[in-house]
Amino acid sequence: MSNPSLLILPGDGIGPEVMAEVSKIIDWFGAKRGLKFDVSEDLVGGCAYDKHGTPLHDDTMAKAQEVDAVLLGAVGGPKYDVLDFSVKPERGLLRLRKEMDLYANLRPAQCFDALADFSSLKKDVVAGLDIMIVRELTSGVYFGEPRGIFEEGNERVGINTQRYTESEIDRVARSAFELAMKRGKKLCSMEKANVMESGILWREVVTEVGKDYPEVELSHMYADAGAMQLTRWPKQFDVIVTDNLFGDLLSDLAAMLTGSLGMLPSASLGAPMENGRPKALYEPVHGSAPDIAGQGKANPIACILSFAMALRYSFDKGDEAARVEEAVNAVLADGLRTADLLGEEGVQPVSTSEMGDAIVAKL
Amino acid sequence: MSNPSLLILPGDGIGPEVMAEVSKIIDWFGAKRGLKFDVSEDLVGGCAYDKHGTPLHDDTMAKAQEVDAVLLGAVGGPKYDVLDFSVKPERGLLRLRKEMDLYANLRPAQCFDALADFSSLKKDVVAGLDIMIVRELTSGVYFGEPRGIFEEGNERVGINTQRYTESEIDRVARSAFELAMKRGKKLCSMEKANVMESGILWREVVTEVGKDYPEVELSHMYADAGAMQLTRWPKQFDVIVTDNLFGDLLSDLAAMLTGSLGMLPSASLGAPMENGRPKALYEPVHGSAPDIAGQGKANPIACILSFAMALRYSFDKGDEAARVEEAVNAVLADGLRTADLLGEEGVQPVSTSEMGDAIVAKL
Ligand SMILES: CC(C)[C@H](C(=O)O)[C@@H](O)C(=O)O
Ligand SMILES: CC(C)[C@H](C(=O)O)[C@@H](O)C(=O)O
What is the pTM of this model? Predict the structure, then answer.
């Protein structure tokens, strides 16, 4: 049997730096655990535009469809702000999500004990926080048609379309219920059914799917109330399921609650391939951070934990994933901090690669 | 000259209770300051549905169009959850906003010194917080067509349309810039121009309007980053302008930062009427809180401060508005707390009407 295949797309900004640390982890598993991957690397985002005039070359897209999992760093940068919408770095990422049909975006928001003080929230509000947001990722207002800027009378009008079919809601709801079954058996679905018909359909379908998961306690919340409750007392939640746009805001909000954005991974999963593995892309929640790119200041942990998610969700290596997560906890407990995590008295920052090396050493 | 006219719509749940306290304030201004209003009262929301089979009777709508300002309590309750979308309590509120064309929703998020400890955020993050969110209120995905649940193939699809014209963006941007001129001269506009064309148009038009306000420092932020930044360090903002749906989430998030939702008022303003006053509706940010309705537990301050906003924005009585706001601060400094504000040692809650009376006494 051939090795499982990984496509690495470091992307822009700090992407390549943090991905270099992930490569160390991958190498460690190959050398010490006989867990080898066939790794290839390619371009996405601004760097792909620089080379090919498109943020995602068709060849890269084709490769992404074939591999067992894609690891992505980050895309974007001020240099590309002037580009037309259709070739902006983000379009590369959105094309991957859409064409690989990665409908379930898993965004854990976990507060690391050693870092609870970094949150802008009170320690008792966030200490021990562990929620999972499941965001629909291939539909909704991100992709609905018609869309564009049109002439109307003597002015322009900007139009986007929020659009969800029953089957699109059904499949992401099932992903969320499955996760809830493996966790605290509580699922909260968020929409604006009080003002949007797409939200009414969302609520109906989620309720219907819930009948197949009688053990899971299902609740519904308007997304604005959801934003409030996440801020007020986030520990009331276990798994949250919501649409693409609400998920974008709410998962970023939840990430910020933990106080350590540089720590948070994500997984985007699609339907099972022939080999039984889901189509999958893993990426840190943070962006390309152009302001600190190339300075060795970036925190590689979010990207490393994204690889841990790959071990768990693509390769069924839960123990190995836990080993990576424990190594991360251990270096944090030792007091190692990258520059984004400063503030404690007397702590000197370590560089991106020092952090990566320390994690490898803990493995 | 006749007295300015007020239409009071107490609505459902705690609406009538908190509005009763506002009436005391109105009476005080009439008796002690010769500032008399012609007050009429009517139904909106669930109670209107109970009586008329519609959450807003046409006669009430017509009255709202004629008065100088509308004061609204809150709408909704579990009893009405089973109603069809088209007659749900919220539709009454949305019809008022739309037909009065109240395009600029002003949502101050202010942290009251005496209450900074109630926030789930650290005290230094929120103490002294004073931001103003200007939310577009009559367009976007709340009202765009096509909308509904349709059959497509052999399944249903839920559709809503995000839609903004240049003039809709222009007018709300102007409201926001005007407010910024009277405040800290900083305006941040939020959208998702990286994924939505309506956001691109939004950013363009706001930038264009900004040329008329060279003194105002204008910035742009993606709404997901906005949610993060509001959570991380809200004091970086002065005025924020955003669309209807993002504004719904972000203003609720900002409200929750202050830790005292029962304290926050809002104003919804439209174009000037013949008498020069803007069309206007004032309402607390909190909902109808059916769980505590009728028990004298509700906090009337948000509704009272909404009346203060009416004094300021409809009747050009900034001094009188400040007088009400100072009275509120004074009772809080005295340690008076309604049940939503408990937690300090040894504090006994006062009732809704005790709180109202205390504020009147301070006037
Ligand atoms: C980069 C951008 C297109 C993207 C999104 O809006 O989905 C990002 O914010 C995210 O959440 O992954
Ligand atoms: C009640 C509801 C329709 C309303 C909205 O979504 O606008 C509310 O959340 C608000 O913010 O005023």
Answer: 0.96
